[in-house]
Amino acid sequence: MANLSFVEKQVLENILDMDNGYVLDLSNRNFREIVYDATDLDIYSEKYNDYGESKANRLRSFWTKESNQLVSKLLYAMANYWEHIMVVPLGHVNTDSKFFKGLLQIAERLKSEMSDHIAAMETNINDISFQKLKRIISDLIEDNKPDEALDRLHTYMVLYLRKLLDKYGLRHNPSTPLHALLGTYKNKLMQEKVIDSVMTEEILKSSINILEKNNHVRNNQSLAHANDLLNYSESLLIFKVVSSTIEFIESIEERSK
Predict the structure, then answer these.
(1) Is 174 helix (H, G, I), strand (E, B) or coil?
(2) Nearest to residue 140, comparing CAs of 130, 127, 150?
């Protein structure tokens, strides 16, 4: 579900002229095409028929079912349509108006919430291959393809934790699995009494268990092999959990300086 406030929904209702069941001046065919081009989803599927058949009702249903990322991509697409197809020929609204800016502002806010998770993956590791891998993952997430990023995300975490263990001279080898790498780092934190709360220790233990399951996802539900990809929402959840783990580790490393 997109994190749209009541006020933002009312703003979008006004901007997109949804009072009478329409969305801008889009025909049914154009409405379907603009949604599909932006999100790869069919707005005329039964999934979006909760409130009724009209374009406005289907868009309202889309807001309640899809993620911030998807809704943001669709709002950008509608802004692009407004600017280059609807506004220029008709000339009745311009892109300097508060309405057009309001549409972009909401789209940008929704997008920024995912950008926070991407930013959480920033590290101080200056390895060229590692940084290229991060850019690939970031591009896939921003392009709304978390399912295609899963195998790269697994590789990223393996490289990240290996570099971290090397930094402290902690033993591992090329066959050490991802969850065991994190377990070694967690043990170091516990031995040095870096962790202050029992709850944090339990969260780290849970993260180790989660990363152990990530091995299965990589081997059986990612592009690492000829697999059927994991669904969108679960792929996005995995990305958020992994990025949060990296963010916590980086905060520990920063504090240790």
Answers:
(1) coil
(2) 150
For 165, the token pair is: 């263990």
DSSP 8-state assignment for residue 87: I
The amino acid sitting at 109 is R
Of the chain, the end-to-end C-alpha distance in Å amounts to 40
* Residue 93 CB-half CA count within 13 A: 19
Radius of gyration of the CA atoms of the chain, in A = 22
- Please report where in the chains the tokens 């591009």 appear, as a residue: 139
Helix axes 98-119, 128-142, angle to 10 degrees: 140
Q: What share of the chain is helix, strand, coil (3-state, %, to 5)?
A: 70, 0, 30
Spatial CB neighbours of 101, under 8 Å, sequence gap ≥ 6: none
Instruction: Render pLDDT for 12-64 as a digit per residue (tens, 0 to 9).
Output: 998 888 988 999 989 999 999 999 999 889 999 999 999 999 999 999 999 99
Q: Which amino acid is at 39?
A: T
